[in-house]
Amino acid sequence: MFERLMRALAPRRTVHAHCDIPCGVYDPQQARIEAESCYKIIQKYHDSNDALFKARCIHVKEERAELAKQHIDVMWHDYFKPEHVEKFPDLHDVCWKAAKQASQVKRSLELDDAQKLLELIDKIDKMWRETGGPGTTRMQPAQSAA
Amino acid sequence: MEPTLHEGDWLLVDPAVYRTRSPVPGELVVAVDPRQPERWLVKRVARVAPDGTLTLTGDHPAHAADEEVIGAVDRAELVGRPWLRYWPISRFGRLA
After folding, report:
1. Is residue A138 included in any domain, yes or no?
2. A110 lies in which domain range?
3. Which of B 15-54 lie inside 8 A of A, CB atoms?
4. What is the interface size between A and B, counted as CB pairs within 8 Å?
5. Number of folded domains in chain A?
């Protein structure tokens, strides 16, 4: 009953206050670093006998997996363009599965789940590289003097 | 648009007020994003040019540069004036 009332009162449209500039900087490594962290945390969880440490592992892993999911979403929604989908017809499927796998890693303590997330992010990374990502979405480091 | 608006706020928008007059600097507007017409923005009016086009800004200090990013907004792109936040109840009230 309350839910029906809330649905009736809820706004019909969403308005945005953020600019979504966008800055144009994209790199799947942001997601990969968080996914690697999740993998290592799961390893450390299983290697530990300390209940408090294990509890912290669960908490921090959930945070990092959520960040991995956000970085995957940014690649999916903001970096990839229609012409990339023509080149990689399974692009949407890969990104969707990666985001779902990040959710799985949030709640899982299986190393296999974290490994699978890394593999899906690597697929995204391959698509980013083969669409010219590194040259167009990353600033090049300053050349150091010889 | 923090601290004036928070993500998830439910707003009532008056669709009529900007039909008969132009907004003035400092007023809140809902406008069609000139860069992405399927997206609506809620911003504050920074300036009104002599030809009636609007420059929009955000209340958060980090969004001071928004006007350069969004660009000038035509009066025809105005949807209305958000005047009331009705959810969450803890921050129910008229918008300034």
Report:
1. no
2. 28-132
3. 30, 33, 39-43
4. 33
5. 1
Residue A5 falls inside a structural domain: no
Domain for residue A15, yes or no? no
State the ipTM, two decimals: 0.88
Please report residues of A whose CB lies closer than 8 A to that of B82.
15
Entry pTM: 0.59
Report the CATH number that the domain containing residue A70 is assigned in CATH: 1.20.120.400
* Sign of the torsion angle spanned by Cα atoms B87, B89, B91, B92: positive
Residues of A with CB below 8 A from B70's CB? Answer: 19
Most B CBs within 10 Å: which of A6, A16, A23, as the mutation test of the B interface?
A16
**What domains are there in chain B, each with its CATH number?**
10-88 (2.10.109.10)
Please name the residues in contact with A101: beta carbons below 8 A apart, sequence gap of 6 or more.
A113, A116, A117, A120
What is the pLDDT tens value at each position of chain A, 146 positions in all? Answer: 888 888 889 998 989 887 666 678 899 999 999 999 999 999 999 999 999 999 999 999 999 999 999 999 989 988 998 889 999 999 999 999 999 999 999 999 999 999 999 999 999 999 999 999 999 899 988 876 66
In a domain, A121, yes or no: yes
* Amino acid in the structure at residue B30: V
State the DSSP string of A2-70. HHHHHHHHS-SS-EE-----------THHHHHHHHHHHHHHHHHHH---HHHHHHHHHHHHHHHHHHHH
Determine whether the interchain pair A16/B40 forms a contact, defined as Cβ–Cβ distance below 8 Å: yes
Answer yes or no: are the C-beta atoms of A102 and A28 closer than 8 Å.
Answer: no
